[in-house]
Amino acid sequence: MRVIIVLLSVLLFVSMSQGRVEITPFTGYQTGGELDDATTGATLELKETSNFGFILGFGKEGSGTQTEIFFSRQETELEGSGAFSSASLFAMDVDYYHIGGSVVVNERNNLKPFIAASLGATHFNPEASGVSSETDFSFGIGGGVKYFVSDRIGLRAEARALGTLIERDSAAFCAGGTCLVVGSSDVLWQFNAILGLIIVIP
What is the distance between the alpha carbons of residues 165 and 185, in angstroms, rounded to a whole number? Predict the structure, then answer.
């Protein structure tokens, strides 16, 4: 995780020299996703909840493209089914740390539709004593629209699909030698819809 933070800091320092900077804090809603245990046959589900975060965008004025740093946190719960009861097992934070970019398409005055893509890592942080956290490679793709009410203020509405690659032979969420997931689904899919306030720094 420290490596990710260092890389994001370097990108921030380099990208700010390009000129235009957009800071977009956002809130939204994110679906859960499923993890399958190959040993027990149980399916573990992340509960659908709200999410929040920010997007930092860097690019040259008027170019229509920008480099982006994307961070999102979902405060959710891991729920069991199959061999487990359907009750909540424990609370969990799901964090996305991504680097990517966006391209504006069919711009119309202050309305700017765009497509976006990103790569990075997903960090699963259980809020349970002794249960290990997990970090896996992930990617995202989506699109949306920006609407500027002035040169410096705008709104960003976006939908994004997020996929986290989890190895089938891996074990996750372990405590005292016992793991909830042994051999998981290849991809954990989550989808979110967000609305953010764009603040432009020239």
Answer: 8
- What is the percent of the chain where pLDDT is above 70? 75
CB atoms inside a 10 Å sphere around CB 75: 16
What is the per-residue pLDDT across 121-136, written as a single tens digit (0 to 9) for each? 999 998 877 777 888 8
Can you give the CATH number for the domain in which 53 is found?
A: 2.40.160.20
Range of the domain at 177: 2-201
Number of domains in the chain: 1
CA pair distance 73, 53, nearest whole angstrom = 6
Mean pLDDT of the chain: 83
